[in-house]
Amino acid sequence: MSEFKKIDEVLDKKYVDKVIKLRGWVYRKRELKDIVFLIIRDSSNIIQCIVKKENEDFEKARKITTESSLEILGVLKEDKRAPNGYEIEVKKLNVYNIAERFPITKDQSKEFLLDVRHLWIRSRKMNSVLKVRSTVFSAIREFFTKNGYYEVQAPSFTKAACEGGATLFEVKYFDEKVYLTQSWQLYAEAMIFSLEKIFCIAPSFRAEKSRTRRHLTEFWHAECEEAWKGNDEIMETEEKLICYLIKRVIEERKKELEFLKRDVTFLEKIKPPFPRIRYEEAIDIANKNGLNLNYKSDLGADEERVISNQFSTPFFIHHYPKELKAFYHRPDPKDPEHILCNDLLAPEGYGEIIGGGERIWEKEVLIQRIKEQGLNPKDYEWYIDLRRYGSIPHAGFGLGIERFVTWICKLPHIMDSIPFPRTINRFYP
Ligand code: NSS
């Protein structure tokens, strides 16, 4: 066991008047004639430390700058005026590095904070978001493994589009041209013939030219594929996953949600089943709220915001017109102009967080849909093969992890939900 404690651990009556050792960084510093106040941060929290003039390290403390790294030995005291109600009277101070003038001061522009992202991730806001994000990743794994799914991986270099050619990133692959994957899905559909219930957490890449609050060019995708399921049943899995993630985030990260000023009681009220509305009903809701759409209109960020503002729980939109979605979605045999697909939208204006549905499992229908979408069946030979050898009904979905984290933390922009965001004009640092 390390002799050093974490700040969160010592914010406790049982350590009052005890000698403790901490290490971390200087979050703020204030100096009076006879006393230096240092607010120290570590990964867990912040605490006020005081160094008095009679301390032999007083001069050292005066030279300390914001973000300097140090370790201290001191005695914990209760003090109502201090942040978190405790402070440490420093007895000994050891400095690792006196930081140069830290470029981040109050009231910096969003653009500047993105330029110095490697430093901004130390902020308390980013610290809280990253902890929520960490919980979301582990909760996704918990959910799927507890429910009998195998974790598998798919390649990132691919030869054909899954989600439309417009957002493919080309990569020179020796003398060939390949693309960065948009989704594991086509490979997942092959793997269910071996494992039946599978999931994956991996980055997906999309050359998104749209500058919206919800598009990244590299995002983390939690995807699931399952044999023997249809659209209705996969929606059930999606809502169970989302409820599980909300529950785990509230259990583990209430403090962080509160720091981010997220209304936790709003999240606590979310319960399955989620409302399921047909695409046409979604269009009607949009039109009642000031838009002017028709029954073939695509729903982008703006339209989804209007619709999702009318809900206080996540909800599904299903049965989109077949022209609006990727080739692999299964047309409803009772209504072939519409497909057995679903988008799960977060409320409060956030919009789509999951896209999923039932896959075409009949070979002829698949070839026809590939052609209708202007794609070449030759590029999908191995995928069509899956309909030749023991084809079965199956369904799946993909959750955009940053979209989910953005909503659960109620962040204004998707870039706040990932440590180093990638967008059309942002790939540094
Ligand atoms: O295009 S999707 O709606 N669907 C698929 O990729 C399916 N092949 C998934 C599957 O069934 N296995 O994307 C799924 C989700 C979508 O709902 C968003 O939450 C997220 O992936 N997504 C994104 N997040 C951030 N940035 C971008 N550009 C982005 N595109 C999709």
Strand tally is 18
Low-confidence stretches: none
The overall average pLDDT, rounded, is: 97
Strand order of the largest sheet: 6-10-11-18-17-16-13-12
Strand-helix topology:
Layout: H1 7-10, E1 19-31, E2 35-41, E3 46-52, H2 58-63, E4 69-78, E5 86-97, H3 110-115, H4 117-120, H5 124-146, E6 150-151, E7 157-158, E8 170-173, E9 176-180, H6 185-195, E10 197-205, E11 218-227, H7 231-259, H8 264-268, E12 276-278, H9 279-288, H10 301-308, E13 315-318, E14 331-332, E15 335-339, E16 341-346, E17 351-358, H11 363-372, H12 381-385, E18 394-400, H13 401-408
Parallel strand pairs: 3-5, 6-10, 12-13
Antiparallel strand pairs: 1-2, 1-4, 2-3, 4-5, 7-9, 8-9, 10-11, 11-18, 13-16, 14-15, 16-17, 17-18
Helix pairs in contact: 5-7, 9-10
The structure holds 5'-O-[N-(L-asparaginyl)sulfamoyl]adenosine.
Describe this protein's structure.
There is one protein chain. With 429 residues, the protein is α+β, with helices and mostly antiparallel strands. The chain is built from 13 helices and 18 strands. It has an 8-stranded mixed sheet. The protein has a 5-stranded mixed beta barrel with strand order 1-2-3-5-4. Strands 7-9-8 form a 3-stranded antiparallel sheet, with no helix packed on it. It is elongated and about 85 Å long. Bound molecules: 5'-O-[N-(L-asparaginyl)sulfamoyl]adenosine. 5'-O-[N-(L-asparaginyl)sulfamoyl]adenosine binds next to β11, β17, β18 and α13.
